[in-house]
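Re: that chain you flagged

S.,

Sorry for the slow reply, it's been a week of failed gels. I finally had a moment to sit down with the sequence you sent. For the record, here it is as I used it:
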Amino acid sequence: MADRFELRWLQNLHDRRRLWAALAVVGGLLIALGSLTPGSEMPSNLPWDKANHFVGYAGLAGLIGLAGVRLPLTFLVAVLFGVAIEVAQIPVPGRSGGDGWDILANSLGAAFAVVLLCGLRRGLLRPG
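Prediction finished late last night. Pasting the C-alpha cells below so you have them in one place:
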C-alpha cells in the first residue's frame, strides 16, 4: 500500500495531458527553430551534435507520450517529425540536412523515451 501512495504524485503528474500536449507543441517548435536556423547563426560551442538530437527527440517523444498519445504512434510521430525537419534543413545555409545519422539519433532518442514511458505506465497501472 505504501508503494501505491508513493506513486500517487507521479500518477497525478502523468494525468495532466493538456499540459504535456502544450509542452510537446512548444518542444516541436523549439526543435524546428533550432534545426532551421542557418549554420552561421548557431552557437559554436554546442555539445556533440548527435547527443543534441537524441536528447531533443527523447524530450519531444516523452512529451507526446505524456500527452496521452499511444506509444507506437508517439514513436512514429517523433520519427516522422525528425525526418521532415532533416528534409526541410537541406536548403538552409550552413546546415547538413538529410543526414541519416541525425535521423538515427532522433529515432533512438524517441525510442528511449517510449520505452521509458512504457515502463512508467506499467508501474502506474499495476494493480496494487
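What I noticed first: Residues 53 and 106 are 5 Å apart (CA to CA).

Talk soon,
D.
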